[in-house]
User: Fold Nitroreductase from Sinorhizobium kostiense.
Amino acid sequence: MTEINQRRADHPIHSIFLERWSPRAFTSEEIGETDLLALFEAARWAPSASNLQPWRFVYARRGTEYFAPLLATLDEGNQRWARNASALVFILSRTHRTTSTGEVRPSYSHAFDTGAAWFALALQAQLAGWHAHGMGGIDRDRAMRVLEVPAHNRVEAAVAIGRLADPATLPEDLRQREKPSQRKPIGEFVFEGRFNGA
Ligand SMILES: Cc1cc2nc3c(=O)[nH]c(=O)nc-3n(C[C@H](O)[C@H](O)[C@H](O)COP(=O)(O)O)c2cc1C
Assistant:
């Protein structure tokens, strides 16, 4: 079966799923707006319940005035390496929907749908020679303020986008973790007919 990045698929899949991973060593180069917009274009075509498209993105490109304030909303541990990213993207989801009668109601699948959009962005980044590293380690209250996020929107995660650099550029502790991770076997999370696991 396919083996890439020291990851082995037990069943035949496209190589992109093994190729994509979340590095921390980035080159610090700038990313053009057109290159970045292509990643959001991929996210745009994700499926969502009732086609509500609840995902929202706020980005900062390296070399712009927005980069430092957005970087500062990440946890220290993420700032250490994400400061070398080419762009930071914050992923938000709209928690409510407006009905045809103008009523504002909670949405059930806003996070699920937005997860699909984030993964489309991550795969497109990989296909275009970039890497996208998701981060939940964020000061969310601060991010809400800095990004000026309106009500009925939730900060889901942030993403560092960059080109892969030599792991030697990382501090020692991060360098040791700089490799693609493994996965649980399918038997631990896929069940036929009824739920049969933890
Ligand atoms: C929602 C989410 C939050 C994450 N938070 C962090 C984070 O705060 N810091 C970090 O270094 N990696 C973070 N990661 C990266 C995961 O640790 C990584 O995706 C996981 O270990 C699988 O490895 P892979 O992406 O290289 O395949 C996050 C990923 C996701 C999807």
Q: What stands out?
A: The pocket of flavin mononucleotide is lined by residues 21-22, 78, 134-137, 157, 180-181 (CB under 6 Å). The longest helix spans residues 110-127. Helices lie at 16-19, 33-44, 67-71, 76-82, 110-127, 140-146, 172-177. The two ends are 28 Å apart (CA to CA).
